[in-house]
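Design request, tokens follow.
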């Protein structure tokens, strides 16, 4: 099923105004602006729903999902020797892949974590090891207090939601999209629960597709 099909069949589309042309009295650009606002509202509601659903899972369900995801990820990535790979320090019931990240060193790869060093700017990444000294960063997310900056070859992106075309829904800051726009060489892989799948997130011009999505059910 394509995104366009979904848009036609969706019970309550975010916006009908795309059917009005400028010649019909609209202000050029205004329809796009209204549509973007409606999509942002819809995403906010979907985020809240998906986050509540995820938080309702037990710790052992999330742990089992993280272990299965890690196995699928190893199968997808193959030989990672020499690669820098970033993931995340879990917050808000995100899957905890720190055990997998900590295993990279022994496999000849380096692990990294993202930092917001400036609001509304691309993320930056610092090498992380299991014994790294951490400090509270933006949004109180723990980040390495010191260490080399690196541009990851592969960035694992935690998903609040994802869609059939591989677009990601995050917390709404736009940080991952900005990061991928500024670093097109980064291979981004979305990681989340299969229950976070949506038919479409109504991709906007700034949204950048993940190269792959991995859930506990495999490669989505
Ligand atoms: N564990 C973890 N670390 C991560 C990320 C992540 O998704 N998970 N990020 C992945 O990118 C970056 C941080 N992303 C963030 C994105 C948005 C907001 C935030 O302030 N959201 C506002 C709403 C913003 C808006 O709607 O304009 C909020 O919820 O109040 C915070 C952090 C880097 N580190
Ligand atoms: N490359 C970019 N340049 C400037 N603004 C951007 C860019 N990418 C996204 N944004 C802005 O960020 C805002 C949030 O985007 P979106 O809803 O896609 O966030 P998200 O992917 O859920 O968040 P995050 O990646 O932080 O978890 C949008 O209003 C968008 O305009």
């Amino acid at each position: 099923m394509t995104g366009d099909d979904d848009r036609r069949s969706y019970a309550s589309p975010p916006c009908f105004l795309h059917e009005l042309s400028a010649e019909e009295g609209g202000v050029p650009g205004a329809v796009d602006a209204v549509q973007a606002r409606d999509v942002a509202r819809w995403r906010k509601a979907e985020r809240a729903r998906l986050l509540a659903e995820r938080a309702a899972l037990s710790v052992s369900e999330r742990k089992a999902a993280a272990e299965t995801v890690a196995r699928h990820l190893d199968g997808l990535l193959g030989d990672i020797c020499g690669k820098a790979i970033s993931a995340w320090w879990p917050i808000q019931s995100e899957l905890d892949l720190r055990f997998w990240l900590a295993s990279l060193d022994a496999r000849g790869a380096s692990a990294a974590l993202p930092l917001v060093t400036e609001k509304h700017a691309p993320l930056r990444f610092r090498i992380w090891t299991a014994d790294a000294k951490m400090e509270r960063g933006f949004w109180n997310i723990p980040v390495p207090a010191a260490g080399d900056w690196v541009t990851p070859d592969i960035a694992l992106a935690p998903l609040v939601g994802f869609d059939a075309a591989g677009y990601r829904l995050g917390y709404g800051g736009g940080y991952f999209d900005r990061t991928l726009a500024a670093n097109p060489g980064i291979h981004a892989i979305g990681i989340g629960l299969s229950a976070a799948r949506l038919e479409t997130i109504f991709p906007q011009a700034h949204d950048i597709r993940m190269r792959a999505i991995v859930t506990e059910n495999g490669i989505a």
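Comment from the thread starter after seeing the answer: thanks! The helical segments are 3-9, 30-55, 59-77, 98-102, 175-182.
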